[in-house]
Write a structure and sequence with these properties.
Number of strands: 0
Order of helices and strands: HHHHHHHHHHH
Structural class: mainly alpha
Oligomer: single chain
Number of helices: 11
Mean pLDDT: 85
Amino acid sequence: MPDSKTPPTARTATAPAARTATTPTARRSEATRAAILDAARERFATDGYERATIRAIAKDAGIDPSMVMRYYGNKEGLFAAAVSVDLRMSELPAVPRDRIGATLVAHFLTLWDENEQLTALLRVGATNAAGAERMQDVFRDQMLPVARAACPDPEQVPARAALAATQMLGLALTRYVLRMPPVTALTRDELVAWLGPTLQRYLTAPHSAWPEG
């Protein structure tokens, strides 16, 4: 037993010094994850979601395909972790508050038309938990500031932002994924005319228009 008279500092001087330091194994794991994600982003951007394969991504990263599966489970999980989606809300033009609904619809139509990653993420989010969480993060983090600026009641901002997202995601699902003919047949102006007032109401309707609890 250690001498009870020994000063505490002396008794602990020989204790292992860096238990909390990152181990070589942990560093290798982090490096492998980073290599996989870098390769995945490049491959998804080059080939698109459908054509990109785990085997090709693993080859680009210089690892065995089983390592990709070990860290991310499948292609859906890898895509959800790798994809970075910017809804470009900062690019929204300065418009009167009573035009925010129509402006958002037009903005999202431009995004869906130009960014295949959004459509791919929507497909993944509908069937994969990691994809769903990624989509939730994107809309929560990037839609909330817009709703906060337009909403008359700060306490309702999360609900109003979520309701606006239901319209935009529903439109994307039916127009770009399911490609329902009545929806794909609508022109951009028609979609703005139909959905703009709905988003406007979700974001700016006065508190008195909401049912009382």
